[in-house]
Specification:
Chains A, B, C: InterPro entries: Endoribo_LPSP/chorism_mut-like, RutC-like_sf. 3 copies of one chain form a homotrimer. Chain A is of the alpha+beta class. Chain A is built from 3 helices and 5 strands; from the N terminus they run αββαβαββ. Chain A has one domain: 60s Ribosomal Protein L30, Chain: A (2-Layer Sandwich), CATH 3.30.1330.40.
Chain lengths: 152, 152, 152
């Protein structure tokens, strides 16, 4: 089953991520490395606004992280045309907007990592750091950047 | 026009960054990837000290970020001898020393990104995360690390 | 003297890091780059719990950072079988769980960097950022991720 078929089976329709005419890039490929910009939760249109450990529970943060994984898959699909070109996931930096004293960043970012394993299987496993930020753009609870290895 | 000429046109004289006899390295090149250490604002001699959202406004933070971009270009010039050897900017991690509740990290780090586009044009665009830190060395408002692709 | 011999001379016995049957990976190698997951202090069994600048002094944070370096060397040994396969250390992201106002992140992460230079000599020097996080998993004071270059 292709990654796209697995996404469909999970009920996660992909949408296109467009490179704007000016400004930043959602990805840059150099050789077989595809560097993705940090992305934030935007799948459901829910207006995420707050820190985990205060406005959001760990479980809600995990839900946000799963939305971020979907968003990165949309960007990768737009970059590559075919998610099957992803040979493996290399490295994830999971950043959790953390209220003072919050220390369950890995449990939050598992929402990101688990979707990658559901979609790519063994090749979705990755090196990772899951850490606590003092703030994130627009006060979203989670932002994640990722490096993919692309088949040559 | 070369990157050095564009820097001169912007009134941004380059200064050498020296690798000390002991300690850390301002850059490491491996293959065609040039990894730069995080740098902080040091162009004007202004004693930056404080968080964005408290001691500094977003606009002041953006000014600091532009100083960091200058500093990274000085380091890259020292590393390569010729900024024309930079094929493109790959990835930027923009770190903003953020007061509680501050969430305009992208607007701050745009000060960094915009100078890169002024100097390198289309090849200056990059993948990026712009995020909020609880603290930075010497309480500077901004630190940025970057990966360049070097022409072979 | 091999890196393993230097570790022994320093009284730092290596222990194996096992890849679990499910979940995250402690490392991913792609080409000659070995990406290590963030690791936390776990050498002595001391229950590290707190922020630097509050529960821990800078000197104690530095001690924790040295434990993290040991832990990364254990993981690299498990990945490679032989630390002599490490050609050089490329890039370190040193993350310090920072109490409000704490700004001595470099002095803390020096505990990490110094052990790498003790073990690998000149090839242990690296590009680095040392920055302050709002929180870390399990409220540990330090987490560090690293990229190694592997001899081909």
């Amino acid at each position: 089953m292709s990654p796209e078929q697995k996404m469909a089976e999970l009920g996660l329709e992909l949408k296109e991520v467009v490179v704007g005419p000016v400004g930043l890039l959602p990805w840059v490929q150099v050789g077989n490395l595809l560097y993705m910009s940090g992305r934030t939760p935007d799948r459901t249109g829910k207006a995420w606004n707050g820190q985990v450990g205060k406005e959001y529970t760990t479980a809600e943060g995990k839900e946000a992280a799963r939305e971020v994984a979907w968003s990165q898959l949309c960007a990768a699909k737009s970059a590559l045309g075919d998610l099957g070109r992803i040979k493996r996931v290399i490295k994830v930096l999971g950043m959790v907007n953390s209220a003072p004293g919050f220390s369950e960043q890995p449990q939050v970012i598992n929402g990101f990592s688990e979707l990658f394993v559901e979609v790519f299987g063994e090749n979705g496993r990755h090196a990772r750091s899951a850490v606590g930020m003092a703030g994130l753009p627009g006060n979203v609870p989670v932002e994640v950047e990722v490096i993919f290895e692309i088949a040559e």
